[in-house]
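Lab intake sheet, docking and co-folding queue.

SAMPLE TYPE: protein with bound small molecule
LIGAND NAME: zinc ion
LIGAND FORMAT: SMILES
REQUESTED OUTPUT: full 3D complex as structure tokens
PRIORITY: normal
SUBMITTED BY: R.K., bench team

The fields below were copied directly from the construct record.
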Amino acid sequence: MRVWLHRSSVPSAYRFLVAILVGALAFALTACGGGDTERAGKPVVLTTFTVLADIAKNVAGEHLTVESITKVGAEIHGYEPTPGDIKKAAKADLILDNGMNLEAWFAQFVADVKVPHVVVSAGVEPMSIGEDAYAGKVNPHAWMSPLNVQIYVDNMVRAFGELDPDHATDFQANGAAYKAELGKVHAELVRTLEALPVNERALVTCEGAFSYLARDTGLTEKYIWAVNAEQQATPQQIASAIDFVRQRKVPAVFCESTVSDAPMQRVVEATGAAFGGVLYVDSLSAADGPVPSYLALIRHDANTIGAALTGARP
Ligand SMILES: [Zn+2]
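RESULT FIELD (auto-filled):
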């Protein structure tokens, strides 16, 4: 009571000043609230390349903003991040990398931006590179097996659940649905390529990026160079591919979308094998291109390989 009496006795000019201050404080709190709302928008997940971004979007659904650091068609092994990439990554909440020595630039990159990162290939059984200066090192292209990507999905479900616990059950449901799709694409892939006559089950490509796919489908893999970062295509490497094609009577050879096919065209000229088409590994295509998603990428590669090796042009 005494307080009220006391307040009623303060001069009106003073009360006016208090009213202004209270008003200003209220305005400041509202403004802060607005800022918090903006910051509390969807968490941002950055991936190192487009293929991972598409897989992550399938797990994230509408709850996270997922983007790729490298653009469609980029060479991803020896990529050099731009100042814009570093600025963008510094604002992200989580970065996903493939690991297995895929992104030679990545360790320095995350050291610069200090954002948490998760290696999505953790738990995958690695295959070694058989030939070249990389012999014995881990082959990083584990996503070329849809069964491995099921492990990538598990890692993403876990990471996204920690990043955004309110939507953890949605991430689990999205992950389970996408893993079912991956299982279907794996079955299609095996069906398409196991239909090939045994002597035609040879996959000759520019980069040694198909070891996991070749293992899943019973193909023998031969490549000009092991990893794109070192795509020197020496005369010895080209001669070795030519010998393989001649010995195995391989009807068609291939090259990937992110590199020049000139070295493989020399194999074509020397052997008479057909150029079977462009395969996609390290990047998706643009949205209106042939492989706008990871599932489309696997289907496209399986159909291109199957059609070219059986003599039907893709
Ligand atoms: Zn590659």
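REVIEWER NOTE: The chain has three domains: 2-39, 44-187, 195-309.
SIGN-OFF: pending second check by T.M.
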